[in-house]
Amino acid sequence: GGGLFAADEPVVAECLDGRAPGVALDAACGTGRFAEFLAGRGHRVIGVDSSPHMLAHARRRVPGGAFHVAELDQLPLADDSVDVVVCALALVHVPRLQPVLAEFARVLRPGGDLVISDVHHELVTRGSVIKARGPEGEPRIAATYRHQLGDYLRPALSLGLQVRRCEEPT
After folding, report:
1. DSSP 137
2. Going by C-beta distance under 8 Å and a sequence separation of 6 or more, which residues neighbour residue 65?
3. Side-chain half-sphere of 104: how many Cα atoms within 13 Å?
4. Which of 74, 145, 157, 159 sits CB 3.0–4.6 Å from 105 for a disulfide?
5. Are 41 and 21 contacting, i.e. CB atoms less than 8 angstroms apart?
């Protein structure tokens, strides 16, 4: 609940406040922290993550959600099927943003909202990494990529997405 979660949760929550309930995708949902937030505000929640272990936690948090093992660049959803996409602290682990943002744009209904929070590229430069355990319990470091603001904006704008807000922690 501390660290980066404490920094991104209030900003993401503020971006989502006042949004009418609909179908919400928590992309790279992990343990379901934003899936739970969205479900609590009346959204029908879909979560995707590449880790079955993380999805097990998300299912316990949001029993009424629909959770799928999937990669962000190959979402198991129909075109124009969600009203809001939330992707928090995950794109730092994606080498190329364009295919992922293209999938978000594909599944997002016209007029829908995409809310992204991510690790600032300066933290990556300073060596901020995610430590985890592999399938056999062995220590691992998650792949981390240094994306600057333009790396998000170029593909997003080319896909017809519009930027309404941009925040950087101080």
Report:
1. S
2. 32, 35, 39, 45, 46, 47, 58, 59
3. 31
4. 159
5. yes
Q: Give 84-137 pLDDT, tens digit per residue.
A: 999 988 898 899 999 999 999 999 999 999 999 876 444 544 555 565 666 677
157: left (phi over 0), alpha (psi -120 to 50) or beta: alpha
Q: Looking up tokens 């998650």, which residue turns up? A: 142
What amino acid is encoded at 127 in this protein? Answer: G
Per-residue b or e along 64-82, where b marks 16 or more CB atoms closer than 10 Å to that residue's CB: ebbbeebebeebebeeeeb
- What is the token pair recorded at 72? 């962000």
Q: Which residues pair with 24 in a beta bridge?
A: 45, 84
Q: Residue 139: beta bridge partners?
A: 133
